[in-house]
Amino acid sequence: MVSPDSKSSAVKNRRCSPATIIITACLISLIAGFTHDRYFRDLKIGIFSLLSVSTLRPTSQQVSPPLGIQAWKPGSSVCLNTCSKARNGVCEDGRMNVTSYEVRLVHCDLGTDCDDCGPWTPSGPVSWSTSAAATTDKEALNTGPIALLKSLDIEVRVRRTRSTGPQFDFAFTDPAKDYDVSYHMQNTGGVELSITKIFYKIFEQKCRLPATDDSPGVPSALFVDVGGNFGWFSMLAAAMGCR
């Protein structure tokens, strides 16, 4: 006669571990995908390939570009006074004292504090540049990133970098709430300075600035910041001429 404890032990031994279940499920999925590909070869190209190809297949339905992209022309400027702090005698879109290392609070999107800061010429279309023609609602006009962050009570600061390579303005937030990127930008004017020196050497060899009267243009390398979560190395690459 088999004791209850022996039966319980045998049942436990027959149970699959979580790892075994996961591996089995993966194998079943792979086999199913393979047989699906083989069986329906004349009709389809396999479930996984079908999904990837469908994202590349051109659609017959043409989607119109957003209003800002339609209306934007190279060289056109943005000059609005839709910021809540516009016309107060102080430039508050982050462009004041651009040669200074002083930390500046940003309250307005670029070009929305025009009387105090002057027009802003973007390098591409921006969502808030044409909204003035579409509405007279002052709140609706504030569609830029600074307006969005301020609506969420997120502080935006900007300062000129002091790290290796060309200098540029870099935005960050309250260092008391971000003790990493914002803390270092506030106090040192740079982020990950040791790694930045390495990237600077790479960019120096690969990136090329556009042609000028003194220098012929050379095609720039394409830099992809995979997993870039705060844009530091992307900004450095762009400042050095990379695409």
TrEMBL record:
<keyword id="KW-1133">Transmembrane helix</keyword>
<protein>
    <recommendedName>
        <fullName>Methyltransferase FkbM domain-containing protein</fullName>
    </recommendedName>
</protein>
<feature type="transmembrane region" description="Helical">
    <location>
        <begin position="16"/>
        <end position="34"/>
    </location>
</feature>
<keyword id="KW-0812">Transmembrane</keyword>
<keyword id="KW-0472">Membrane</keyword>
